[in-house]
Structure formats: C-alpha cells, structure tokens
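USER:
Before I trust my own judgement here, I would like a peer's view. Write it directly below this note and I will take it from there.

ASSISTANT:
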Amino acid sequence: MRIVFFGDVVGKSGREAVIEYIKNNKTQKGFDFIIVNGENAAHGFGITQNICDQLFYVGVDVITLGNHTFDQKDDLQLFDREKRLIRPLNYPKGTPGKGFVIVEMPFSKRKVMVVNLIGRLFLEANDDPFFIMNEFLNDYKLGVNVDVIFVDFHAEATAEKVALARYLDGRISGFVGTHTHVPTADLQILPKGTGYLSDCGMCGDYDSCIGMKDDAPIMRFTSKIHAFAKMTPAVKEATVCGVVMDLDDSTGLCSNIQTIRIGGFLKEQKDCDSL
C-alpha cells in the first residue's frame, strides 16, 4: 500500500500546486491514500468548506490541521460536516472536532487510521502528546483492529518530533512532522519499522518568509508595531513538498520512503517512483 502526505498548504499558490500535482499523478504514481495538512490553506490561516471540497474532489482522503485550526469563522461547523477533517488529538477535552479518523478503503477494506497531534515546545499549552498517544494506542493496535496508523505531528522543535517518533516506533506505520514549513533531510525508517521525517516542508511559495510575503515578518522582528504587520501569503509558483511511504500489507510497517519536492523556488529533487 502506498500513502502520500503533503505538508502545510499555504494560501492560493500552495492550494493550486498541490491540487494540480494530485490530479496529474495520483494514478501514475500509484497513490492509494492521500493526506494533506491544510491548516494554512485559507490565505495562510485555517481552512474553509470550499477548500475542503476542492481537496476532497481531487482525491484527498484526509485533511489534518494544526495551531491555526480555528482561525476561520466557519471552522466549528466544518467539523460537523467533514468527518475526514481532523484537528490535533491532544487539544483539551471539549474542543470541537476529532483528533483521528479511520477510513476503510473501498476495495481492499483495509482500515487506515490518521492521527493529528500538536507539540508543546515553543507552542501554546496543550495536553502531553506522549501520554495521549500511548493511551490511544491501547485501544488501536496496528495489525489488530487497524491496518495502518499514520501520524502528522504539528510541532516546532525537532527534538520533540524525533523523541515522539522513536517512542512510537513499531506501533505506527508512519510519522511525519509539519509546522516549520522547511523540508528536512532526515528521511528514514526507524529501527522497528516506522517511516519518519522531521518536517515535510510546505506546499507554497518558498521565495518568501516560510510562505508569507517578507514585509510583515520582518516588521514583526524589527519593530513592536505589529498592528500594521499583516501576514499575507506569497503568490509566486509554489513548491510541492510531500513524502511517500510504501507499507507492508502484512505488518502495516514502512518498507520504503521517498520525498517529493517539485516546482517553484526550491531546487527540485527526483520525484517519487511509480510502483
């Protein structure tokens, strides 16, 4: 089974690029299941019903979020309508929405679980992702009641990402970090079989300050006058950043992992192979 995950989609440029890539490559590359982090998809902040519709229409199976989950006014109603849109599992109890979803694939009947988590280092206070995920995996076991478990960990600190992934190694299929908007080079399969990447990178315009036009971020760092420093997504050609994992059908663990980095400002690397 082949799963593809696309990192934080930033603004119109990122949306259009990832949608076009999926349309042109889903069949050719043999993608069985598609996950997208959409927390910056609506002009850099949150997601809307219209954007969900566009992503699901081209074949996205699950959309994950992060610290901008509730930045759009219709976010609360979205979770009632879109069961395949998930927010971090370790948000406090009572937070609208769910932190995981199980999707049964139509032909194989394989059950794919996607879990969204958020870090605590250098981010606002949230529940402990180590404790929450350990308890969660008491009820959902790879190869027992689900065939795949994939985690999007939306976190700032690389050390927190590495530590949590190694803590979960062998109990989940894949673990990919998001949030920093910069692709890392530590692609690997951990010792017990979990596919890992510290940060997938964003799908957006890299001729920018992590997806935003330069002026506002620079003003925020050089001045205390933030009222005039409105963040606006950069609009040049986007780079599509993703990670592809091939999973062993008998174990649900990762047998091969590749990255996608194509188009836009960053130097391209070889796109993933077809099956």
Remarks:
- The mean pLDDT is 95.
- The first helix runs from residue 11 to 25.
